[in-house]
Specification:
Chain lengths: 130, 130, 130, 130, 130, 130
């Protein structure tokens, strides 16, 4: 199993990313995901920059919506870690049980129609090609 | 290739679903997806009921957000038909190019972190298990 | 695009596999899949042996059921080539439109419940672990 | 982790679905999957109706074959819960170890040829397009 | 369909990325992938930086091996665009037909054993957990 | 859970495969994967022949590179067993932590660009079609 790199034993480069995670998220917790990929500092750097940008940079989607999209991908892929961490994050950002139920309903239905489209070999309508 | 069932040649059961799609979506267009699965009326019935429920029943998620979630699943699965049809629907509901770019950025990043979590075999943090 | 290796230009090793495909399937048609992987004879050999064994060796599953299972996997993965070829093969082995509709209904529903199981992080019941 | 809704604490709406599951399956056991999605009654309703319809309504596929198809999808997607529950159900419906071995052989081989078709970028034969 | 942003009509920010792609790849061609995601400059920036880093920064894996790994992922996911572009790139970096055949053989076999591991619900050996 | 077939209780057919695994891998360990699929001897035979061929037959890819490709597929699919066993095998063949980090970076990035290509519905460049 991957060694989790704790702040105390981390290099300056890794600590610098941990500090930015703490500042951005406004709490001290560094989760196992960051501690694991910290074994390869370029990956930690690049991944944190991407997550920070897509999840917190100003834009048209509010923070809660961004978490719901993240859950939709993670559930579709079956990533146990990501489902657990992003569901927790979404609840912290205001997702109620009902909202989670609605979200899961859409994810489930989309996975259904995706396969029906495959199996029935359906041609894309002209009006959807613009 | 699957025969597309047009309204004119459809059974009463299928026409009844087409009518409900038109009423619900407030336009006359029946797309190829519905015309294709109409070859099996029980599937058409059940699938339309599911889509209608998750996409239009009153709830906490607004219509545009529901389309974005649908796109997130379809892009992750690589369903060409669904990506084309739901991107068109999302634009009709107000999705700008910028919003689409933000959405794609989250989808892309989530597909990255899902695989990092797999490969680094990361244990789920206790605090995410509640 | 991959060069398709026709019988006339094939090596003895490749022709030997093509001959066995023809004998086993009782018709002369060598489809594009075999002609494409024939570019790497070890892959052609090994893949034909596997397909021949799982699809035609005596067993408890009848030939049509084996094709339905093959379609279920191919639709779930979204493999356009395999969906087209195995749907054609299944029809040749007796699959009616109704049977195809029932098959697609199960595939669609399974893809739904698979994701619900992921997203709701459901623990496996003890009785299913035996 | 999701709270599992037991019959005793369930609403009338949820109990009604549990009752139908028991009647249809002819045993009293409500598994964790149903107890988990019961947190969102519309999802429980819709999902049970779908599963009931595709798995038990009269049709051309027998009950055991329907479970094999369900396993094929679940194994391809890697859904741990569904693999465990449907393998148990299939055994209860008559699946022997040998049949399971044959099923797994087809699933494995189909996942192979699906990727060969992708990687070799194989054009669909004209005769498979009808 | 997405508008492809040509150099001539691009903003300075986008041109700057196109220039870096040209310099890094030592040729003038900007492919459709970059021209499409250029519709959202932050995505273009971040994605190019990631690709540039993982594919060209000094490391233990040589350039051709990196392309093979990229193909392995793309074939597994069935991404038509990426399979075509990275197979072309790998050939340019020295991949022979034989090497491609060996690569595809491994990809195919891994997709098989991945599903066998799922379906047989195999516990991870202790010695693989370190 | 699947019964693991130990050498002592195995049939001659299964023992013959176990012997070949030991000889080929030059150590006595038979892992859980082989012991599990040994429940269906034709699958054990065919799968071992495939793995042996793609991973050890003489070719242009060295043994360590073959393991990296195997990991790339397994991480993309999220197969817990295969990730654990092949990461262990790769380390035994010389994969350093840095090399693993580089590998994971490519896998992660490829999973990103695969989805961007899907979502932006990007047409394949003519020059990639040859």
């Amino acid at each position: 199993m991957t060694k989790l790199i704790e702040y105390e034993e981390a290099s300056d480069e890794v600590r610098s990313v941990y500090d930015d995670i703490r500042t951005t998220r406004q709490n001290d917790y560094i989760n196992n995901f960051w501690k694991a990929i910290a074994n390869h500092p370029p990956t930690l750097q690049r991944t944190w920059q991407a997550v920070k940008e897509v999840m917190t940079s100003p834009g048209e989607l509010d923070p809660l919506m961004r978490e719901l999209i993240y859950i939709a991908v993670s559930v579709t892929n079956g990533c146990e870690y990501c489902i657990a961490s992003h569901t927790t994050a979404a609840r912290a950002k205001g997702m109620s049980d009902t909202m989670f139920g609605e979200l899961m309903g859409i994810i489930a239905t989309a996975n259904t129609t995706n396969r029906l489209a495959n199996g029935y070999q359906i041609p894309v309508d002209e009006r959807f090609k613009t």
